[in-house]
UniProtKB/TrEMBL annotation:
The keyword Metal-binding does not apply. Residues 34-113 are annotated as: Disordered. It comes from Theobroma cacao (Cacao). One of its GO terms (molecular function) is serine-type endopeptidase activity. This is DEGP protease 2 isoform 3. Residues 455-533 form the Protease Do-like PDZ domain. The lineage of its organism: Eukaryota, Viridiplantae, Streptophyta, Embryophyta, Tracheophyta.
Amino acid sequence: MAIAVAHCCFSVLSSTVKFRYSVSYHRRLATSTSTSQASLDALSPKATNDKKRALKSCSSTSPRKFNVKKDPVSQKKLPGRSKDEKSSLYADGISGRGDMGRPQSTGFKSFGTQRKDREEFQLDLREQQVEPGNLQDATFLNAVVKVYCTHTAPDYSLPWQKQRQFTSTGSAFMIGDGKLLTNAHCVEHDTQVKVKRRGDDTKYVAKVLARGVDCDIALLSVESKEFWRGAEPLRLGHLPGLQDAVTVVGYPLGGDTISVTKGVVSRIEVTSYAHGSSDLLGIQIDAAINPGNSGGPAFNEQGECIGVAFQVYRSEEAENIGYVIPTTVVSHFLSDYERNGKYTGFPCLGVLLQKLENPALRACLHVQSNEGVLVRRVEPTSDANNVLKEGDVIVSFDDVHVGSEGTVPFRSNERIAFRYLISQKFAGDVAELGIVRAGRFMKVQVVLNRRVHLVPYHIDGGQPSYLIIAGLVFTPLSEPLIEEECEDSIGLKLLAKARYSLARFKGEQIVILSQVLANEVNIGYEDMGNQQVGFLCPPYNLRMPIYSHVLKCKNSRF
């Protein structure tokens, strides 16, 4: 029944589609590493999950202490998981929901980095990299740099320590004012970032100023004046049209020098972002994007940057599907940083919506025209909870009419998902909604804010919080922990709560007993693990009455 309902619903729980992890998949980055080691949501949780698994980041990472899973393009080593889980790969930071335990052959990949230690690799002969040709001496190529990042990721299963250090490489480009742009997954969990210019043999230390996980963009700065000598920043162009020529530049696998691939714009629509588990505007191209390309620019024929390469779609049924973050999303990221001094993120409306294609349903709701979407559920932590009600029909957003399929006009003779309008706003902005309630039309105003996740996709600050008492290890449930532990070991009941429950208030989190460190004081509890014991509520009192007789610390704090 839940799946049937999900097929007719889509959610705007955030300005982008939200997908969460399925039972079997692995993180794939678009950066390359070396040996040192949807929301209007998709129409069903299963559909979202299937799509997300196909998405992979375009970076390549170095081998860690884990089992190896080879990819046809990058042969990237991945953290060890269960056997079932290894049958599916996904882009860095993907999260999908539904259809748990069913491996998929498709997968989006964020391709940004390549492994420096690979002794061999397989290249898809259908993806041919073209020689720079007449672009060889183009000055804008000199604005593209190679990124070297050293990562130290947290160990979510053992939250008091970190995983083994590893390195990766990706691409970035100059935007002026001493700053560079790259992908967020290229510098995730960074401990050191260095960049090197084309034709130079010196690496310069870079600093991460802002990291937009949901839009997969990071802003870097380099203090060295020598690095910027003679540099010319790139000009950001406008959104391209279909069939416009596009050139992708970066430092992918296959060599150490700059690489150029060519193609055309295939499609422009709201796209699932693998790393941020969000849905924002994306440009689909057929130019080859390989590990190491992540963070590199895509140019039009005038030499203007039209976006940032960040992921590809891999499937047995599809080929030559790469994705570029458009300059509209890039400009939103930069404007957000300039306005707030930090990146605050894309806002959401905070409602679950259903299409109104059925004439009988429209008649029941007294909607006269073929437009509008039905509010099925309102997120408790959103401002919409004070304005909208279940059963309302949203027919316009800032005077833009919303179609019965949840789409709005886009450019000439095109339509795009309703959530695109939300993504054009900033956190704290006010949107005017035209709604039909009990047959009466009215206009209401809603403040758009970032979505509050009951189970976070990324941990702020990088290191997860935890509490150890009497050998019992407690930690908040998070998507990285689910991925690391393997969904099979989490349990269906806890996974269902993580997938479909909404936060009732800001700061609420699910607290689990992740494991028990055997000791005479906890005899009888040694085999327990990954079980929910309570909720973490402001002011961060850990509520776990089930184990209070063992811990004698019912009001212990994190």
